[in-house]
Amino acid sequence: MKKVLIASLALMGSIGLCSTALGAITGTAHDFSASGWSQGQICIPCHAPHNNNNTSGELLWNHEVTTATYTLYGSTTFDAVDADQPGGVSKLCLSCHDGTVAIDSFGGASGGTMITGDRNFGIDMGNDHPVSFTYDTTLATTDGYLVDPNTLPDTVKMFDGKMECASCHDVHNKHNQNALLNIGNGGSALCLTCHLK
């Protein structure tokens, strides 16, 4: 009986999360339900409840993952010691936004619809905010112009201690901000969450 109760609560929780995500995604740039290739679905271009393509099961990922090698951001003022090729959730974002994988390449299908315009960042990230580097107290102290990440609001997240695309952007648009941001950037508010200048 206890197992049935736990399973029922887990199912109710997952339905609640899905309905929350659906409400937030509906009408955003990540709502592909009107595209013929999405089968009228919102979630399946990225996630699959069963038989996902990611053997680790992370995020029940359903989309083909990019294998691109990127030109990285570099600056004499960038103090992160472990900056390397994008990984983690950033690689999942780039699987559509780097222009190497079609947005309709999911569920094992090879699509042909590519992101175009300014939403296609390409593989040269030399002029983009760096991602997939450790943002910790040591980096903030070494840099001198970064906020200690232990004091950041809950809306700005680190993933395994790393700054990722989803640290600033919310793919599900739960915060209802322009450009799917976690915090509005009027007056550079989002930037100034981490940067002191």
UniProtKB/TrEMBL annotation:
Keywords on record: Signal
Keyword Chaperone listed: no
Transmembrane stretches, start-end: none
Repeat listed as a keyword: no
Domain Doubled CXXCH motif span(s) in chain numbering: 163-195
Superkingdom of origin: Bacteria
Residues of the signal peptide: 1-23
InterPro entries reported for this sequence: Multihaem_cyt_sf, Paired_CXXCH_1
Protein name (record): Cytochrome C
